[in-house]
Design a protein that fits this description.
Strand 2 and strand 3 form a beta hairpin. About 0% of the residues are buried. The chain has about 90 residues and is an alpha+beta fold. The model has no long low-confidence stretch (mean pLDDT about 90). The chain folds into two domains: about 40 residues, YefM-like domain (YefM-like fold), CATH 3.40.1620; about 35 residues, no CATH class.
Amino acid sequence: MRRVATVIPITDLRQDAAGVLKRVRSSGEPVIITQRGRAAAVLLSAEAYERAEHDRQLLRLLARGEKEIAAGKGYDLAAVLADADRILAAD
């Protein structure tokens, strides 16, 4: 089960930025920063951001592939695997 995200006001971030960063890095969980009672930003560790970007890029590629398949473009799986086998055997 997913935990409830940590939410802190921007004034707390200003007062203890180092502590908030330490919490984010150690837990790997995002912290939601609020301003005037509303969510204004999300603070992530660099590692979590990189993972999220990687996942987003993979999803974008999959979506593009789905569009190509729907449009009748792309390559037959057997042909792609045969090409991959040929390339790997050449090494």
